[in-house]
Amino acid sequence: MKIVAILFLAYLLTRGLKGRVTFPRMMIAVIAAALPSLLIFLQPDLGSAMIFPPILLAVLFGARVPRRYVTLILSPLWAVLAIPNEPLLWVVWGAGIGLWLVLLHLKGERLSKLALFLVVQILLAGFMVKSDDLLWSKVLKPHHRDRLLGFVQTAEGSTRDLTGSDYHLHQSLIAISSGGMTGQGLGEGMQSSHGFIPMMRTDFIFAVIAEELGFAGAMVLFLFLAWLLMNVSKCAGFADTWGECVVVYGVLGMWTAHIFINIGMTMGLSPITGIPLPFVSYGGTSLVSNFVALGLVLSVYRRCRFHENPFT
Fold first, then answer.
1. pLDDT in tens, 12-66
2. Residue 176 in contact with residue 211, Cβ under 8 Å?
3. Are 293 and 254 in contact (CB under 8 A)?
4. Which of 8, 39, 256, 264 lies closest to 151 in space, CA to CA?
5. pLDDT in tens, 170-183
6. Contact predicate 128/83, CB 8 Å
7. Beta-carbon count within 10 A of 309 CB
8. What is the largest CA-CA distance in the chain?
9. Degrees to nearest 5, angle at CA 182 with 156 and 274
């Protein structure tokens, strides 16, 4: 689904356009990315649904969409500040919106569009304030709420009543911290060998690596993933056509989201979701999808005229 979404978004943003994406075409792409994300969220699969926004942002960046349009898409994230309904957060929200409008005006944006953007921001903030209870009680499933609460409790240092996902995160943190510099040895990890780490071959594979290979092994993995992302971005610069560049950026956004969400959830930096680590987690479907994405990137490199190997 994610590979198909990348190809379709690249088609929408480049087909029939001469190097400039219009606002209506961008909104069509946003809707095209939001529909599969919403359907996947309703399954319910929050983790996979979270991958589509980074893919969309990466594709828009690769398509050279004007930044004022991209900031309009990101504005709902800024409106989240209004949910607690605290005066200080309202001041921060208003200052951010005001600075954004001033920057757009300095860029030459018309006052009519600035007024429209301001109205959209106010409506978004009002929607967030009025619908937070509805989103929490009706939209989010019980296990989604459990994961978010577990993430908040861990961030606050609370270890009481560890059940469900917060217990899983606690075990992952124990495994990572017990690895030390060089780890406990392959297959010798206390948490992993005794089955305390949940889904240790898929979602929590990074905790197993950090426990058994230590900080050194985790850094080797970090360097490999950073090398992969860096060279994919170089392939995007080598692309012959606009559409191929957008496809490569979509793959880059997908892998970046997978890496940061997966590693972040094992260390308590993000809520727990079922996101595999590319080329590391066990799973046939994930591995096939990643190799298809890698094939797209290598196909773009093979077709380019500039034949320096980005993977060396």
1. 888 876 667 777 888 888 889 989 888 888 887 778 888 998 999 999 988 888 8
2. yes
3. yes
4. 264
5. 788 888 888 888 88
6. yes
7. 9
8. 65
9. 45
